Structure formats: structure tokens, C-alpha cells
Amino acid sequence: MISKRLQGVSLLLALALMMSGCGRAAAPPPPSYPSINVYVEEPSSLASLPLTVAQKLGLYANQHIRVKWVSQPKNASLWVETAGTRYPIVGLVAQKPDAVLVAPRSDPHFRLRSLNHMPVAYSSGVTPWIPIITAIFKAHHVVPSNLDALSIGQMTAVWRDYELPWAIVTLSEWQVLQKEDPKTSVLAWIGGATGPIPAMVIAGKSPLALPFVSAVNLALWYINTSSARVITSLVQTPTIPSTREAKLIRLSQKYQMWPVTVMLPRSLYQRQINLLGVQSLWPSYDLAVNPMVANQAINRLPE
Fold first, then answer.
1. Keyword annotations for this protein (predicted)?
2. For residues 14 and 108, which has the higher predicted lDDT (pLDDT)?
3. Is pLDDT of 79 > 70?
4. Are 92 and 161 contacting, i.e. CB atoms less than 8 angstroms apart?
5. Which of the ends of the chain has fewer CB neighbours closer than 10 A, N or C?
6. Please, are residues 40 and 77 in contact by the beta-carbon 8 Å criterion?
7. 19 pLDDT exceeds 80?
């Protein structure tokens, strides 16, 4: 049954690729399809790649919806963001934050404890995950003297003068810093220090939640069964060389940034609650998560 279902998914995705011009942006769906407004907290992050893959493959149109990406949360019907802000949570997009600690030079002897009582700069791109990063520091008995936010432009300016010993950035921003200094290296994958957590989720109540989550679920299957080179050819942006983009996707696959399906297990939700120490502030899994939408999305895969 599983092999037949996977064959059905493969056929569906192959047809989607054909309809989208073998990797070119899909033609807009017919206007008769209902539209849903979706807000993405950090659209430039690799964590939101499944949304882009779904769009490039025409999977939203395949589910008979049009997606309108809105820049203001108040205008959305569904939100894709870090867990703990809106409920109910109906799907999982990323299970590890897109956050790495980089330095101008590699250091094989580096330990996270080296940051204790030291200033640490972070880019605006990792802002949604700062509560998680702070909790990770606390779990490793690390208390930075300062946590300073810088735009990637500000960080780049001081990076070329070696004024920062290290910084927390997204994977894409790491490559921006590498352009300034090719020896810039990743010291630690901060987001991978906890095990899987609901780093980016789909939340909200909408009659179109099921087709949207179903499209993202198919995109996750595509990401987890395709090579970084194939994914890059689908989503490549003109401003980033394909080899560099493929490297980022390959690293993200290695560190299992994306889950296999949209289902948010109870264990992941509870792990984040324990990590953040918000047992009395966050609702329980049964109140916060609606697993029926993810279950139905998974069951909509072709037999």
C-alpha cells in the first residue's frame, strides 16, 4: 500500500512539473479557484522552502486554491510562523530553526560554552528564533554578556574588518558573509542543538486550511526524496549561483530541517515547551494542535 501511494505521489509530482514547465513558475490557476491569504513570518529563510516548492510545482493549483502572500499578519487567514503565537496549529513546515553560528575562521576546538559572558551578535533574519536560541544557550549554561541585533548589511560592513569574532545568522546570510571573507565557517548549527521542534508551523482556522496543508505536505515529500541539485533547479533565484544554493539545501537536508510530513507530533510540541520553560503559559497539545487537518492531508496522497 505504501509503495503504491509513493508511486502515486511520484506521478502527481511529475505531472505538476510538466504543467509548471519543468521547474519554471507555474501559470496562475483559474480565477474560479478560491483564494486564501497567507502570512509568512520569515519568507527568506530556508525553513519556508516547502512553501516555495509547492508554488513552483503548482501544488496549490492542484489542490484547487490560489494563495495570496500578504505582508501584514492581520490580513491573513493562515499564518506560517514559529509556534506559540497563534492557534490552532494545523501543520508543521520546519522542525529545526534556520540559525547557525559562524566565525571568520574555522575552529575545530570550539564549544558553545566559549560564548559564556561574551557579546554575541545576531542577524535580523534569525529574530523569530531568538527565544529558542536563548533557551538553547541556557540549556548549555551559556549566558552572553550581550545579544545584539544587526541587519545583514551592518554585519557585512563590520565582518570585512574582522570586528566580530562570531555571529548567529541564517544559512543564506552565512553565504553573504562568505562573499566578504571566503574563510567564514560554521562553528555550530544552533538550531540543531535541541532535536526536532516546531520551528515553523501553519496556524489558523480556515475552510481552505486542508488544501493548503495538503500542498505543503506534497512539497515536503518532494524535498525529502529529491537531491539538492534537483530542488535547486526548481527554486533557483537569479541572484544566487546554483552551486551555492544547492549547498545550502544539501546542508539543510543533512541536518533534517524539514519534517517528512506536516504532522506535528506531541513529542515535538512538548520538547519546545520544556525548552522554553513555558509549561504554564502555552496551551496543552490537545488544545493547541488540530491534528485532523494534517491527518486528512496525509490521507489525501494518491493511493
1. Signal
2. 108
3. yes
4. no
5. N
6. no
7. no
Instruction: Please indicate, yes or no, whether residues 25 and 115 belong to a single structural domain of this protein.
Output: no
pLDDT of 92 higher than 90: yes
Model confidence over 153-172: pLDDT tens digits?
A: 999 988 988 888 999 999 99
64 Cβ partners below 8 Å, 6+ apart?
29, 33, 34, 211
| Strand partners of residue 120 | 147
Q: Is residue 66 a contact partner of residue 34, using CB atoms and an 8 Å limit?
A: yes
Which residue, 132, 162, 192, sits at the end of a domain?
192
In this structure, the dihedral spanned by the alpha carbons of residues 262, 294, 128 and 144, taken in order and rounded to 10 degrees, is -70
CATH number at residue 50: 3.40.190.10
> Tell me, what DSSP letter sits at residue 33?
S
Give the gyration radius of the chain's Cα atoms. Answer: 20
pTM for the structure as a whole: 0.87
**Residue 16 — very low, low, confident or very high, per pLDDT cuts 50/70/90?**
low
pLDDT single digits (tens) 243-258: 888 989 999 998 899 9
Tell me, yes or no, whether 46 and 138 share the same domain: no
19 and 64 inside one domain: yes
Residue-number span of the structural domain to which 73 is assigned: 2-96+196-299
Residue type, 193: A
What distances in angstroms separate CA 121 from CA 124, 166, 167, 237, one per listed residue?
A: 10, 7, 5, 28
Cα angle 180-182-188, degrees, rounded to a multiple of 5: 100
- Cα angle 184, 49, 200 (rounded to 5 degrees) comes to 95
Please identify, among 167, 192, 217, the residue that sits at the C-terminal boundary of a domain: 192
Q: Residue 95's Cα: distance from chain center in Å?
A: 7
Amino acid at site 161: D
Q: Which three cell numbers stand for residue 6?
A: 509513493
pLDDT digits (tens, 9 = 90+) for 22-68: 444 555 555 589 999 999 998 878 999 999 999 999 999 999 999 99
pLDDT, residue 21, reads 46
